[in-house]
Input
Amino acid sequence: MSKSVLDMSMSLDGYIADPNDFLGGDDGERLHKWADSDQHPEPVKQFQDEWNGASAILAGRRTAELMDHWGGSHGGLPIFVPSHRPPGPAARWGYPLVTYVNDGIESAMAQAKAAAGERDVQIRGGAYTVQQALEAGVLDEVQIHHIPVLLGAGRRLFDVLPSEIELEIIQVLDTPEATHIRYRVRR
Output
């Protein structure tokens, strides 16, 4: 059965982007350097296999627009964007695999899961979208890659939540570049 999985790199102080929407550090990629490491190929390969095993993407509008909708597909996967506003010209006319869903996060996730079939839906970015998915009860798992850095400012992933949300730890992998923790959202 399809499940929805948030996979996010985050600084130890809870930031997923710096104030300018970069991922920290001098080159703007500090939060993702762990994925380029040659020192611990097994965890990186495991995560890449999971990313490649998904069959649909649910992305926040801000993230989708910042990434130019990944050129119209995320590695050939359909992208579902919950939004109350119509898409911009590129997404509207040039990207047939991008679907803007204007009737809520529940509908967007249902459409993404239908497109994914038995495979996973990967949630790509957007703190607001993640918070909405948690509130609506449509997020199944959270995988956080805790990066040993304190950014001190920027965009927090869990800044505003509707209530306390219980998580169950499923897996912990520790490498010098990051601690990877996977949680199941308790319902």
Summary: Strands lie at 4-11, 15-17, 56-59, 79-82, 98-101, 121-124, 141-147, 155-156, 167-174, 179-185. The longest helix spans residues 41-53.
